[in-house]
C-alpha cells in the first residue's frame, strides 16, 4: 500500500524538527495541495497536524498519551447492552468499515475543507472542535449516532433513567487557548467536550422530555454531540441524546452551566448526573451497579503519566522513608554552601529529609569500605523511625547514587536488582548517570522517581483502574508486590505464544515496516538519504510481547523503559487512544560490549519511537548517523515515521481477533486451582486423608472406566470453573454446545462429537486429572480447534502414533506427570531471547478462588528468593568486574521449597483444618539453552523440574 | 586493601568511642578506620537513623550493635572466598557480648568508670572470644550459630544421668552437666532450663579450659543472673570428658575434687572410656545413616538441642567418573551455610519466642503467606535438604549421586529413625 506523507519535504531535510519548526511546516502544509491519502484520512489522522505535535518538548522528546476509555467497541458494547440490542461481531465490523470508508471518502473529496478546519482549530480551538465534531465526523461518533438512532426507534418502550458519570476535567488544559466564548459552545464544549446547541427547535429533542422549562428561559442541556478525545467522549457513558441534569449535584441548565463549570479550579473529577433512555431501567442499573457506580475515573497511573497532580500520591507515601540522592564524592576543601554535595534529591518529605540528613554515612561508608575491603558498597540497612530501611548504592565515577527503600517493600536480596534496573533505565534514557542528573533534567527526574517510588511503594493505588477489562474479572484486589518485583526484574519480557499463522502475519507486517523500502520511507522517493534506519521493533498486545525483531539487550532496554512508565499494564487495563513516545535513547548493548575486532557499529544516535493504539503497542528503535543521515541537536519525532508505525498498527488490528482468541483460549498447559485441592470440609476427614485418596481414586477411575470424578470433589468450584470457560468458549466462536451452567462436567464431557467410545474412555481416564483442574475446559474445548502452538507437540514422535492418539495427546496439555493435573503456576524464562512465558492474567483470573491468589503471591515471593540464589551463583556479568562468591554455597542449579497452606477461616473447632502442600521449585538450566524455570505444583506427584521445563519449552515458537 | 582475610571484631565504648579491644585478624585495622566505623554509627544514631549493617559487592560485611548503651561491637568480615553471612556476624556479636557478661558481669560493662581497668579485665575474655571467631579443629560444633547446645547421645544415658544427678546433689547444686568433647552428653534437668545461649557458652567455657584437670571459675549467667556470679566447678574425668556444676559458696574445689569426683565417677570410668571411643566419629553411635548422606544437623526446637552428625568419610582415592565428595571441613562449612540460608529465608530460628521491637534484620520469611515446610538446594558440590516440623529442624547434606526426588524421603526417614531410636 502506498502511503503518503503529511508533512512538507522541509521536515525531512534532516534539520532538527523543533516545535516551532513543526508548526511552520503545518502552516505551509495547509496551503499546499498534497493529496490526502487513504491512510491519512483514516480515523486517527484525519487532521492536518498530528494532535501530539503541541506536546513535543524543546529537546525533541515527546510523551503523548491519550485514553480512549469507552470509545469504539467498548462504548458500543455497553450501549448495546443497555439497549438490549445485540451487535454481532460481523455487524459491528461492517459498521466500522462503513464508517471508515465514509469518513475516508469524505476526506478525500474535501481535503481543503479539512485543512481549513485544522487551521481554524488551531486559531480558535472550540470552533474547530465543533467543526470536527459535526463536519468530518469520525467513525466513533457515527457509531454512537447509530446507537442513538436505535434509541429513537425504540423510544416508545423506553423510560428515562438517571445515571451518574464521573469525568475527569482539567481546566488548566484550556490555559493555552483564549477564553472560550459562549457562542462557540463555551466551557461545556471546551472543557467537557459536550456539544449543545442552544435555541429552541434545534437538536433532536425527544417529545415529552420537556426541552424547555415553562416560565424560564433555561434550556435543558441535551447532548447533541461529543467532541472527540474530550473527557465526555472518553468516559464512554455520555451518549448523544442524554440530558445533563447536574454537575456535582448542582442542578444545571443552559443558563448556569458556564458559571458552574468555570468554578472548577483545577484538575478534578466531577460527577455528572445524566438523564438517559433505557428500556425498563433494570438492566442498566444492574450493569452500572456491577461496574462500581458508573463510569471510570482516570486511573492514578495515567494522571501520573500525564504529569498531573502528584501531590496527593506523594502525600500518601510521605510517612514511608524512601529517597533517592545523587551525591558527589569529591570533597571540596572549601564548601561554598551547605548542601553542595547533593546533586539531586527526591522527594522532599520529612522521612526522606531524615535520610538526607545522614548522607554523610553513605559517603563515608562508600569511601571507607573501598579502602578497607577493596569492594564497592552495595547496600546498607538502617533503622529509621522503627522501620528498617535498605539503602542501595551505585557508584559511577566521582558520584554516588543512593536509593533508600523500606525493607517491607523491597527485600534486601532484591535491592540490588532494583538499583541495577533503575540505573540501567536512566542510562538508556540519558546515556549516563552524570548526564541524567544534570540540573536541567531535574523536573523530569522528579517525575521519573515519582513513578519509580509509587510503583514500588503503593502499586495498588496506581493500578486500581476503575474499569475492569471487560471479559475478565478484575485483577486481584491485593497487589502482588513480590510478583511485580520478580517479573519486572527478570531480564525478559512476558511473551504470548500466538498461533503460527497469526505469528507469521505479524512478523511479516513488522518486517515490511522495518524494511522501510516503500512509499515515502524509501530513499528513492525523495532521492535523499533517509533520516533513520530502523534497527528493529517489537510489538506488544495488551502488555504481552507478541513479536520481537530487536536484539536481546535492546529489547531489554526498551522494556525497561516501558516498565518504568507502566506502558505495558496500561495497554492491558486501559484502552490507549493514542500513545506516541519519542526520545533519544542510549542502548546499553553498545555501551556494554566493546566492539569486536574488525567491525564497529556506526557511531550513531538512537531514538526510541513508541506508538500505541488501543491494545497494540509498537516500539521501534531507530538509528541516525549510520546509514541514515546524521542528526544534530535536539530532534523531534518525525511525522512520517510515526504515521508509518500507526499504519502498521492499524494493519495489525485486523489480526487482533486472532490474538484475542488466543488470550481467551484455555491455558495451554492445564492449570489447576489450589482451592480444588482443599476439601471443602464435609465428608473428608482432614487434608492428609483427602490427599492420599486422590491418586487412588483416579487409579480406580482408570480401571473402571468413566467412574465419575465426583467422589473426589464436591464440585461447586468445578462447575463454576466450567461455566467460566463456557463463557470464553462461546466468545471464541467454536462449536456451539448446549451447555447449561448447571450441567456437570461429566454430562458435558459426553458431548464431544466424533469420538468413539473407547477413545472417550481413554480421554476420560487420561484427562481426568486435568479435567478436574482447568482441564475441564482444556480437554473439552480444545478438541475442535487447535490453533495455537502446542508446547506438548511431539515432533517426529507424532508420526508413529495413530491420529486418534495424537489428538488425545493434544487434548490434554498437561505439564505435570501423574493422573491428576497438579500444576498451579509456572514461569519459564528463555534467557537467550529475553522473554518469559507464564499463564496469562486471564488464565489466572479464571482460576479464582480464595487460596489461589495467595498461592500466586507466595509463589512470586518464593521466586524472589530462588532467583536471588541463582543470581548469586552466576558469574558476574556486567558489574564492575567483581568476582562474587556469595554465600559460599557454590553455584545453585535447583532450589525448591515446600509450602503448606490452610483455609483461612476454619471455624470447625473439632477437626484440624485441612491442609494442602505444594512445591515451588526453580531450576536454572545452562545447557542446551540457558533457561530459568519456576514452577508451582501440588505435592502429590514428585516432579522433575528439568523435564517440566523441557516439556514446556519444547516446540515453543519464539 | 588493608585488611587480611577473615573476621575482625572491634569493641569500643559506645559513648566515647574509646577502643576496648580488637580481635580476629592478625593485621589490625588502622585506628582511623576504627574511628570512622564507630563514627558513622554514632552520627546516624544522633540523627535518628540506626545503622545496622552494610555489604559490599565482594561479600564483605560490617555489622554494628550497641549493647546496653555502653559497649559498641563491630564485626568486619573481609569477604572474598570466605564469605560470612549477616546472620553469622550477628550471632558472633551477641555471643561476644554474652561472653563479656559471662566473665565480667553486666554491672561492670554497663557502667564503665575506668576504661583502662576495663580494658585489662576484658583480656580474660580473649580466649573465649577467639574461640568464637575460630572454632578450631572441631568444626562440627554449631552451637554459636544455632544457639542450640551441641549434644551427644550416649547409648545408655540412664547410668550416666543417675551418676550426674547424684554428683550434682552432693555438690549442693542443681545444675550439673557431663560434656564429652565439648558436647553435652547428659545434664541435669535444671541445666536444661538455662537459656540455650548460656548452655552454649558454658560448654564453650569448659572447652576453653581443657588442659587443666580441674578449675573453679566465677561466671555470670548473661540472662539468668547477669549481676550475681556463680561458681563453675569443672573436673576433667578423662581427656575429652568433663563434668561441671554451677554452685554457690560450698563446696570447695578441693573437697569436690578429692571426695565427690572419686565417689561418683570412678565406678563409671569403664563406661566413659567406651563412650569416648564410640563417639569418636559420631555423636549418635546407635544410628546408621544412609551412605549418601554427607552430614546432617538435627535441632530439637523445643529443648534447643542440636546434633551434628557426620556422614561417610570421603574416599581417600577419588574414583573415576564420580565427582569427588567435599572434604570433611567443607561439609561442615556447607552445612553452616545451608543452615543460614534456610533460617534467614524460610524457617524460624530457635529464639523466635519474642521478636525484638526494633527489627535490626529483615525477616524475609514474613513475606510468605503460607508456611514453608521443606526446602532443598542442588549445587555443584552437593544437595542440601532442610525440613521443619513443629518439634524438629533437620538440615541434611547429601552427595550428588543421590537423586533429587529421593531427598525428601531420605530426609524424613532419617528424622524418624533418629527420633524413634533416641527420643531426641
From TrEMBL, chain A:
Q: Which superkingdom?
A: Eukaryota
Record flagged with keyword Cytoplasm: yes
**Entry's localization field:** Cell surface; Cytoplasm, Cytoskeleton, Cilium basal body
InterPro entries reported for this sequence: CCZ1/INTU/HSP4_longin_1, CCZ1/INTU/HSP4_longin_3, CCZ1/INTU_longin_2, INTU, PDZ, PDZ_6, PDZ_sf
Q: Where is this region: Disordered?
A: 1-51, 121-157, 195-217, 703-782
Keywords recorded for this protein, A-Z: Cilium biogenesis/degradation, Cytoplasm, Developmental protein
Entry annotated with the keyword Cytoplasm: yes
- List where Gly residues composition bias occurs: 725-735, 767-778
Q: Where is the composition biased (Low complexity)?
A: 30-43, 145-157
GO biological processes: cilium assembly; establishment of planar polarity; nervous system development; vesicle-mediated transport
Q: Residues in domain PDZ?
A: 183-276
According to its record, what are the GO cellular component terms?
A: cell surface; cilium; cytoplasm
Give one Pfam family.
Intu_longin_1
Q: Which PANTHER family match?
A: PROTEIN INTURNED
Provide the family line: Belongs to the inturned family.
Protein name per Swiss-Prot or TrEMBL: Protein inturned
Q: What is the lineage of its organism?
A: Eukaryota, Metazoa, Chordata, Craniata, Vertebrata
Gene name on record? Answer: intu
UniProtKB/TrEMBL annotation, chain B:
Q: Which residues form the FUZ/MON1/HPS1 third Longin domain?
A: 293-420
InterPro entries this protein is in? FUZ/MON1/HPS1_longin_1, FUZ/MON1/HPS1_longin_2, FUZ/MON1/HPS1_longin_3, Fuzzy
Subcellular localization: Cytoplasm, Cytoskeleton
Cite the entry's keywords alphabetically. Cytoplasm, Cytoskeleton
Q: Which family does it belong to?
A: Belongs to the fuzzy family.
Q: What is this protein called?
A: Protein fuzzy homolog
A single Gene Ontology CC term: cytoskeleton
User: Where does the record place the FUZ/MON1/HPS1 first Longin domain?
Assistant: 8-132
Q: Which domain of life is it from?
A: Eukaryota
- Record keyword DNA-binding present: no
Query: Mind telling me which PANTHER family this protein's record contains?
Result: INTRACELLULAR TRAFFIC PROTEIN-RELATED, PROTEIN FUZZY HOMOLOG
For whether the record's keyword set contains Amino-acid biosynthesis, the answer is no
* Native organism: Clupea harengus (Atlantic herring)
| One annotated GO biological process | vesicle-mediated transport
Pfam families named among the record's database cross-references: Fuz_longin_1, Fuz_longin_2, Fuz_longin_3
Q: Which residues form the FUZ/MON1/HPS1 second Longin domain?
A: 173-265
Amino acid at each position: 500500500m502506498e502511503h503518503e506523507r503529511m508533512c512538507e519535504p522541509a521536515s525531512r531535510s534532516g534539520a532538527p524538527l523543533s516545535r516551532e519548526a513543526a508548526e511552520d511546516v503545518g502552516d505551509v502544509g495547509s496551503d499546499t495541495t498534497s493529496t490526502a491519502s487513504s491512510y491519512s484520512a483514516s480515523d486517527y489522522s484525519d487532521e492536518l497536524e498530528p494532535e501530539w505535535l503541541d506536546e513535543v518538548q524543546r529537546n525533541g522528546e515527546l510523551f503523548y498519551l491519550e485514553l480512549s476509555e469507552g470509545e469504539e467497541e467498548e462504548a458500543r458494547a455497553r450501549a448495546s447492552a443497555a439497549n438490549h440490542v445485540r451487535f454481532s461481531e460481523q455487524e459491528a465490523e461492517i459498521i466500522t468499515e462503513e464508517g471508515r470508508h465514509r469518513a475516508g471518502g469524505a476526506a478525500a473529496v474535501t481535503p481543503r475543507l479539512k485543512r481549513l478546519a485544522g487551521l481554524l482549530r488551531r486559531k480558535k480551538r472550540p470552533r474547530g472542535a465543533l467543526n470536527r465534531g459535526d463536519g468530518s465526523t469520525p467513525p466513533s461518533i457515527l457509531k454512537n449516532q447509530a446507537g442513538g438512532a436505535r434509541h429513537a426507534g425504540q423510544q416508545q418502550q423506553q423510560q428515562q433513567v438517571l445515571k451518574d458519570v464521573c469525568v475527569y476535567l482539567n481546566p488548566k488544559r484550556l490555559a493555552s487557548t483564549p477564553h472560550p466564548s459562549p457562542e462557540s459552545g463555551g466551557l461545556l464544549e471546551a472543557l467537557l467536550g459536550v456539544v449543545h446547541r442552544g435555541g429552541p427547535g434545534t437538536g433532536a429533542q425527544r417529545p415529552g422530555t420537556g426541552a424547555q422549562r415553562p416560565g424560564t428561559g433555561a434550556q435543558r442541556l441535551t447532548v447533541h454531540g461529543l467532541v472527540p478525545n474530550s473527557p465526555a467522549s472518553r468516559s464512554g457513558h455520555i451518549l448523544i441524546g442524554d440530558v445533563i441534569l447536574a454537575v456535582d449535584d448542582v442542578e444545571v441548565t443552559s443558563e448556569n452551566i458556564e458559571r458552574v463549570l468555570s468554578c472548577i479550579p483545577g484538575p478534578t473529577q466531577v460527577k455528572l448526573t445524566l438523564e438517559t433512555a433505557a428500556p425498563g431501567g433494570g438492566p442498566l442499573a444492574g450493569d452500572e451497579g456491577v461496574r462500581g457506580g458508573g463510569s471510570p475515573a482516570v486511573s492514578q497511573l495515567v494522571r501520573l503519566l500525564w504529569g498531573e497532580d502528584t501531590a496527593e500520591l506523594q502525600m500518601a507515601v510521605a510517612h514511608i522513608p524512601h529517597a533517592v540522592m545523587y551525591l558527589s564524592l569529591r570533597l571540596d576543601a572549601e564548601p561554598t554552601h551547605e548542601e553542595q554535595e547533593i546533586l539531586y534529591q527526591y522527594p522532599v518529605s520529612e522521612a526522606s529529609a531524615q535520610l538526607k540528613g545522614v548522607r554523610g554515612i553513605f559517603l563515608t561508608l562508600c569511601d571507607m569500605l573501598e579502602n578497607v575491603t577493596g569492594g564497592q558498597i552495595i547496600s546498607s540497612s538502617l533503622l529509621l523511625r522503627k522501620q528498617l530501611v535498605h539503602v542501595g548504592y551505585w557508584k559511577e565515577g566521582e558520584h554516588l547514587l543512593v536509593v533508600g527503600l523500606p525493607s517491607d517493600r523491597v527485600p534486601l536480596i532484591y535491592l540490588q536488582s532494583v538499583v541495577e534496573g533503575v540505573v540501567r533505565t536512566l542510562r538508556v534514557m540519558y546515556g549516563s548517570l552524570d548526564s541524567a542528573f544534570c540540573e536541567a533534567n531535574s523536573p523530569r527526574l522528579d517525575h521519573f522517581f515519582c513513578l519509580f517510588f509509587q510503583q514500588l511503594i503503593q502499586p495498588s493505588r496506581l493500578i486500581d483502574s476503575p474499569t475492569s477489562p471487560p471479559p475478565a474479572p478484575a485483577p486481584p484486589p491485593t497487589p502482588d508486590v513480590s510478583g511485580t518485583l520478580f517479573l519486572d526484574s527478570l531480564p525478559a519480557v512476558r511473551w504470548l505464544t500466538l498461533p503460527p499463522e497469526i505469528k507469521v502475519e505479524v512478523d511479516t507486517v513488522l518486517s515490511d515496516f522495518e524494511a522501510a523500502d516503500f512509499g515515502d520511507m524509501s530513499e528513492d522517493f525523495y532521492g535523499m538519504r533517509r533520516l533513520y534506519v530502523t534497527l528493529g521493533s517489537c510489538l506488544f498486545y495488551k502488555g504481552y510481547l507478541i513479536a520481537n525483531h530487536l536484539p536481546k539487550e535492546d529489547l531489554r532496554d526498551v522494556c525497561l523503559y516501558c516498565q518504568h512508565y507502566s506502558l505495558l499494564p496500561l495497554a492491558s487495563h486501559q484502552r490507549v487512544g493514542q500513545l506516541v513516545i519519542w526520545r533519544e535513547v542510549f542502548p546499553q548493548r553498545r555501551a556494554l560490549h566493546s566492539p569486536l575486532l574488525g567491525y564497529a557499529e556506526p557511531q550513531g544516535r538512537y531514538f526510541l519511537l513508541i506508538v500505541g493504539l488501543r491494545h497494540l503497542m509498537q516500539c521501534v528503535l531507530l538509528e541516525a548517523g549510520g546509514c541514515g543521515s546524521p542528526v544534530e541537536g535536539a530532534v523531534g519525532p518525525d511525522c512520517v515515521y510515526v504515521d508509518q508505525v500507526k499504519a502498521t498498527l492499524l494493519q495489525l488490528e485486523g489480526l487482533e481477533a486472532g490474538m484475542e482468541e488466543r488470550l481467551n483460549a484455555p491455558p495451554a498447559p492445564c492449570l489447576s486451582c489450589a482451592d480444588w485441592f482443599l476439601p471443602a470440609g464435609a465428608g473428608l476427614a482432614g487434608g492428609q486423608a483427602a490427599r492420599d485418596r486422590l491418586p487412588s481414586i483416579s487409579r480406580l477411575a482408570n480401571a473402571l472406566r468413566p467412574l465419575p470424578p465426583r467422589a473426589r470433589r464436591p464440585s461447586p468450584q468445578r462447575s463454576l470453573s466450567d461455566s467460566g470457560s463456557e463463557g470464553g468458549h462461546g466468545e471464541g466462536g467454536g462449536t456451539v454446545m448446549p451447555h447449561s451452567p448447571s450441567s456437570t462436567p461429566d454430562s458435558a464431557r459426553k458431548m464431544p462429537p466424533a469420538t468413539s467410545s473407547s477413545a472417550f474412555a481413554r480421554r476420560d481416564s487420561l484427562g481426568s486429572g486435568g479435567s478436574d483442574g482447568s482441564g475441564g475446559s482444556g480437554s473439552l474445548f480444545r478438541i475442535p480447534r487447535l490453533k495455537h502452538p502446542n508446547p506438548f507437540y511431539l515432533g517426529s514422535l507424532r508420526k508413529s502414533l495413530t491420529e486418534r492418539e495424537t489428538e488425545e495427546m493434544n487434548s490434554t496439555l498437561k505439564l505435570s506427570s501423574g493422573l491428576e493435573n497438579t500444576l498451579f503456576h509456572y514461569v519459564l524464562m528463555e534467557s537467550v531471547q529475553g522473554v518469559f512465558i507464564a499463564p496469562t492474567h486471564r488464565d489466572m483470573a479464571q482460576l479464582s478462588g480464595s487460596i489461589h491468589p495467595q498461592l500466586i503471591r507466595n509463589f512470586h515471593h518464593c521466586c524472589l528468593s530462588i532467583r536471588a540464589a541463582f543470581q548469586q551463583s552466576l558469574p558476574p556479568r556486567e558489574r564492575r568486574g567483581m568476582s562474587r562468591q556469595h554465600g559460599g554455597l557454590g553455584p545453585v542449579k535447583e532450589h525448591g521449597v515446600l509450602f503448606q497452606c490452610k483455609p483461612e477461616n476454619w471455624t470447625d473447632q473439632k477437626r484440624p483444618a485441612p491442609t494442602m502442600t505444594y512445591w515451588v521449585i526453580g531450576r536454572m538450566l545452562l545447557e542446551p539453552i540457558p533457561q530459568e524455570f519456576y514452577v508451582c505444583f501440588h505435592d502429590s506427584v514428585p516432579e522433575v523440574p528439568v523435564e517440566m521445563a523441557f516439556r514446556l519449552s519444547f516446540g515453543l515458537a519464539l | 586493601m588493608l585488611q587480611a582475610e577473615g573476621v575482625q571484631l572491634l569493641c569500643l565504648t559506645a559513648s566515647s568511642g574509646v577502643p576496648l579491644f580488637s580481635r580476629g585478624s592478625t593485621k589490625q585495622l588502622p585506628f582511623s578506620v576504627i574511628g570512622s566505623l564507630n563514627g558513622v554509627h554514632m552520627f546516624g544514631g544522633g540523627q535518628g537513623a540506626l545503622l545496622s549493617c552494610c555489604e559490599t559487592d565482594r561479600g564483605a560485611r560490617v555489622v554494628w550493635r550497641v549493647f546496653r548503651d555502653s559497649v559498641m561491637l563491630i564485626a568486619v568480615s573481609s569477604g572474598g572466598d570466605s564469605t560470612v553471612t549477616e546472620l553469622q556476624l550477628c550471632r558472633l556479636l551477641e555471643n561476644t557480648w554474652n561472653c563479656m557478661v559471662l566473665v565480667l558481669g553486666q554491672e561492670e560493662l554497663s557502667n564503665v568508670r575506668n576504661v583502662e581497668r576495663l580494658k585489662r579485665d576484658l583480656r580474660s575474655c580473649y580466649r573465649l572470644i577467639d574461640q568464637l571467631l575460630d572454632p578450631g579443629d572441631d568444626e562440627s560444633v554449631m552451637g554459636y550459630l544455632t544457639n542450640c547446645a551441641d549434644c551427644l547421645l550416649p547409648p545408655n544415658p540412664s547410668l550416666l544421668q543417675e551418676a550426674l544427678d547424684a554428683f550434682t546433689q552432693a555438690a549442693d547444686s542443681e545444675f550439673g552437666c557431663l560434656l564429652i568433647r565439648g558436647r553435652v552428653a547428659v545434664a541435669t534437668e535444671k541445666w536444661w532450663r538455662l537459656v540455650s545461649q548460656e548452655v552454649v557458652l558454658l560448654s564453650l567455657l569448659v572447652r576453653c579450659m581443657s588442659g587443666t584437670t580441674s578449675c573453679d571459675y566465677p561466671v555470670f549467667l548473661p540472662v539468668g543472673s547477669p549481676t550475681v556470679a556463680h561458681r563453675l566447678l569443672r573436673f576433667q574425668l578423662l581427656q575429652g570428658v568433663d563434668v561441671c556444676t554451677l554452685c554457690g559458696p560450698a563446696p570447695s574445689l578441693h573437697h569436690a575434687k578429692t571426695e565427690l569426683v572419686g565417689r561418683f565417677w570412678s565406678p563409671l570410668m569403664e563406661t566413659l572410656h567406651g563412650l569416648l571411643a564410640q563417639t569418636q566419629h559420631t555423636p549418635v553411635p546407635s544410628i546408621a545413616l544412609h551412605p549418601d548422606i554427607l552430614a546432617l544437623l538435627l535441632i530439637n526446637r523445643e529443648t534447643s538441642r542440636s546434633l551434628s552428625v557426620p556422614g561417610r568419610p570421603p574416599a581417600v582415592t577419588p574414583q573415576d567418573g564420580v565427582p569427588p565428595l567435599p572434604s570433611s571441613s567443607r561439609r561442615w562449612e556447607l552445612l553452616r551455610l545451608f543452615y543460614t540460608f534456610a533460617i534467614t529465608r524460610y524457617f524460624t530460628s530457635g529464639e523466635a519466642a519474642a521478636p525484638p521491637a526494633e527489627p535490626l534484620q529483615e525477616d524475609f520469611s514474613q513475606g510468605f503467606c503460607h508456611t514453608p515446610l521443606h526446602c532443598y538446594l542442588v549445587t555443584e558440590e552437593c544437595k542440601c535438604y532442610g525440613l521443619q516440623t513443629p518439634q524438629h529442624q533437620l538440615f541434611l547434606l547429601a552427595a550428588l549421586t543421590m537423586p533429587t526426588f529421593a531427598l525428601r524421603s531420605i530426609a524424613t526417614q532419617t528424622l524418624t529413625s533418629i527420633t524413634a531410636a533416641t527420643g531426641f
